[in-house]
Amino acid sequence: MKVTEVPAIAGAFLFEPTPFTDERGFFCRTFDADAVRSVGLDPGAFVQDSLSRSVRGVVRGMHLRSGEGEAKLVRCSYGRIFDVVVDLRPGSPTYLGRATFELSGDTQATLYVPAGCAHGFQALTETADTSYRIDREHDPSEDVTIAFDDPGLAVPWPLPVTVTSERDRKAPGLAEVLRTLEVRTP
C-alpha cells in the first residue's frame, strides 16, 4: 500500500492500495493497520464505519465537528466522487488550505481527513458509494456545516449541484462558522 502525505492539508494522507487483478476482476486491501501506523496514526482509534450512497451531482458537505473534532478515513467504494478537504484548525501550518481529490471504486484509494478539517464531496457517477471510518461516536450536538457554495471556500464543484440536504442548503458561510467554531486540536 502506497501512502502519500497531502501537502495542502497538514496531517492528511492518501492511502493507495495495490490491486491484484485477473480475469475475475480485482482484489485489494482497503485498510492496513501497519500502513496507518507508519504515518503515526492509531488504527485502533476508529470506532465506527458508515456508508452513504449518492446519485450524480449530489453534494454532501461541507461538514466537520466542533470540540475534539473527528478524524476519518474516506473511500469511494463504488463509482466516483470529487472529494474536498479544508483545514479549519487555527494553529495548523495549512490553516484554510484546501485539497481536492477524485476517489473511485476503481482505485479504492482512502483519504485520511484529520480532525478539525471540513470535508465534503460530489458524486460524479450515477451511483457513488462512499465509505467512512470514523474515530469518534457521532454526537449531533457537535455537527458543524458550512455552505458548500460559499465563495470563501471557493470549491470548484465539477458538476451542477443536483441535490443537497436541507441542512446543507441552509448552512452558514465560512466567515460566520469561523467566528463561532471551537475546535481543540492536539
Automatic annotation (TrEMBL):
Coiled coil: none annotated. It catalyses: dTDP-4-dehydro-6-deoxy-alpha-D-glucose = dTDP-4-dehydro-beta-L-rhamnose. Keywords: Isomerase. The keyword Cell cycle does not apply. It holds the Pfam family dTDP_sugar_isom. Its EC number is 5.1.3.13. It comes from the Bacteria. Pathway: Carbohydrate biosynthesis; dTDP-L-rhamnose biosynthesis. InterPro entries: RmlC-like, RmlC-like_jellyroll, RmlC_Cupin_sf. Homodimer. Catalyzes the epimerization of the C3' and C5'positions of dTDP-6-deoxy-D-xylo-4-hexulose, forming dTDP-6-deoxy-L-lyxo-4-hexulose. Belongs to the dTDP-4-dehydrorhamnose 3,5-epimerase family. This is dTDP-4-dehydrorhamnose 3,5-epimerase. The lineage of its organism: Bacteria, Bacillati, Actinomycetota, Actinomycetes, Kitasatosporales.
